[in-house]
């Protein structure tokens, strides 16, 4: 009896061992489940970042292909691109350019601004119709030691040496309160408030400032009625540019539309003397005429080129 029970238990244990071994073998052959990263949150994060970045970009109208001059633009010629930083003065919508005619040839990829549709250069757009832009040669002394900037106002002084055509050395303000348009290759703003020079990065700005300090030319905005006066002054004597104070707010008044009145210009012209009469003191009398008390004879002016002399008959 005991032997039969023992054999039955042994057989039962054997079957259990076989079953457990088979089940373990089956489980060992199944691949372990791989933990999958949640894809949905990552995709949502990328979309959020893209939307936020798109909102910070600025729209710029660019040309899709070359456009010849004097050809009206159509919707097929332009497209809107979004840039991290829009160029200064660029147009942002297609409606601003459709139907407008460029005055010069424009290449594909060009971003459009108001200058694309205006004739003339930047300097011509920095003055009004009653002004002229005149370049004056300067050096470190004439140009205020290189400290002039576009937008400053200066008085033009003239110094005359004593010579045969000028009896005594003299100095005077030839033209007062002229606006500085540019110094060297650095220019200010056009009349529409846009920079006349292209935008520069920090390194290029430093190089431009260095060239400005060493500049040998200054461009001045001269009222048309005083243009010939300044031109004559540049040929007969030594010029100096005297910087006026910013407290006068002349640039602010200019942008507000206040210009010199015709009366002021006429007053400035009425003070224009012949350069032989600019001496600080009057012409000296000769001893013979002073002793005799005879009335002085009128002098006759003789002009030879840009030289002016006086002779008494």
UniProtKB/TrEMBL annotation:
UniProt domain SAF: residue ranges: 58-118
Organism: Pseudomonas hamedanensis
Descriptive protein name: Flp pilus assembly protein CpaB
Positions with biased composition (Low complexity): 287-299
Pfam families assigned to the protein according to its UniProt record, in alphabetical order: RcpC, SAF
Chain spans, region Disordered: 285-313
SMART domains, per database record: SAF (SM00858)
InterPro entries: Pilus_assmbl_Flp-typ_CpaB, RcpC_dom, SAF
């Amino acid at each position: 009896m005991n032997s039969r029970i023992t054999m039955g238990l042994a057989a039962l244990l054997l079957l259990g061992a076989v079953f457990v071994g088979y089940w373990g073998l089956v489980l060992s052959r199944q691949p372990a489940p791989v933990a999958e990263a949640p894809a949905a949150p990552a995709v949502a994060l990328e979309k959020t970042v893209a939307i936020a970045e798109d909102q910070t970009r600025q729209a710029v109208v660019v040309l899709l292909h070359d456009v010849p001059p004097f050809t009206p633009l159509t919707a097929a010629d332009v497209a809107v691109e979004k840039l991290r930083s829009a160029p200064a003065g660029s147009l942002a919508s297609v409606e601003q350019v459709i139907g407008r005619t460029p005055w010069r040839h424009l290449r594909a990829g060009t971003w459009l601004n108001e200058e694309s549709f205006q004739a003339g250069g930047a300097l011509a757009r920095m003055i009004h119709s009653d002004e002229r832009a005149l370049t004056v040669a300067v050096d470190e002394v004439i140009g205020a030691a290189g400290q002039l900037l576009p937008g400053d106002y200066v008085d033009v002084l003239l110094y005359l040496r004593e010579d045969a055509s000028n009896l005594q050395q003299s100095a005077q303000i030839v033209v007062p309160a002229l606006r500085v348009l540019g110094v060297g290759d650095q220019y200010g703003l056009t009349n529409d408030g846009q920079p006349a020079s292209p935008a520069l990065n920090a390194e290029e700005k430093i190089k431009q400032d260095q060239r400005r300090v060493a500049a040998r030319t200054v461009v001045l905005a001269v009222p048309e009625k005083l243009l010939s006066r300044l031109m004559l002054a540049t040929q007969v004597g030594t010029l100096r540019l005297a910087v006026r104070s910013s407290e006068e707010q002349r640039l602010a008044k200019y942008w507000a539309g206040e210009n010199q009145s015709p009366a002021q210009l006429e007053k400035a012209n009425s003070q224009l003397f012949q350069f032989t009469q600019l001496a600080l003191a009057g012409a000296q009398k000769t001893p013979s005429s002073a002793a005799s008390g005879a009335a002085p004879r009128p002098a006759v002016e003789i002009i030879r080129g840009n030289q002016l002399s006086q002779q008494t008959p």
